[in-house]
Specification:
Layout lengths: L10 H11 L3 E2 L1 E6 L5 E6 L2 E6 L2 E7 L10 H9 L1 E6 L5 H6 L18 E2 L8 E2 L4 E13 L4 E13 L4 E3 L5 E3 L1 H4 L3 E2 L5 E2 L12
Length: 206
């Protein structure tokens, strides 16, 4: 048995422990608008939906390796108030990782990636053509927390695009979504991702 005491621990060590034990984590692949009108693309695995009324997603954005400099995603969202969150699938895992590279502010990750952007109806921004799910979001709030500080970015979902293979109506005409077709990657520790294996279906208590 191992008991780990977080009191006085270096934040880098705490990060390594948390990211290797809180698993798997969904990955938000976030598209935001740069100052010159092209686009920033970056992954975040401190990410979750938090409310349905209003419909909010939250991503936690840290600083660049340069001390005290906010990441472009936070800067862009704060300045232009909108962004798109994609759910990437296994074939895009290498591109997701490449898009995490630190670049000078305003330089687009898309220039190094063979990814196509398409119009996203209902959004002021485009979406990535190859993702099965995309959320159009408006900035709802930003909160800074911790000694970093870490920016908690809250986005209000205005529209969701889902590919035809991942959305369908059941025999009761209810809209349902196929997790296996979405084929999301989840983040583990370090450079590891996880993909769907067996899907367990256990009825909820009535």
């Amino acid at each position: 048995m191992m008991l780990i005491d977080f009191e006085g621990m270096d934040p880098k060590d705490a990060y390594q422990i948390l990211t290797q034990t809180v698993i798997p984590r969904p990955v938000a692949w976030v598209l935001s608008e740069n100052p010159d009108g092209d686009f920033n693309l970056a992954p975040f695995s401190f990410f979750t939906p938090i409310t349905s009324n209003p419909p909010l997603l939250m991503i936690s954005v840290g600083k660049k390796p340069t001390a005290g400099v906010s990441k472009d995603t936070r800067v862009n969202i704060e300045a232009r108030k909108h962004f798109v969150v994609h759910i990437a699938h296994r074939d895009l895992a290498a591109a997701v990782t490449e898009s995490s590279r630190t670049l000078p502010h305003g330089e687009s990750e898309l220039k190094n990636l063979e990814l196509e952007l398409v119009e996203f109806e209902g959004s002021g921004l485009p979406r990535l053509k190859d993702c099965h799910v995309a959320f159009a979001c408006e900035l709802y709030d930003i909160k800074e927390i911790g000694a970093g500080p870490q920016s908690l970015v809250f986005g209000k979902v205005t529209h969701v695009w889902v590919s035809d293979e991942a959305a369908r109506y059941d025999d009761k005409n209810r809209l349902t979504f196929d997790g296996a077709a979405i084929d999301p990657i989840g983040r583990l520790g370090g450079s590891e991702y996880v993909t769907f294996g067996e899907i367990l279906k256990i009825p909820r208590p009535s």
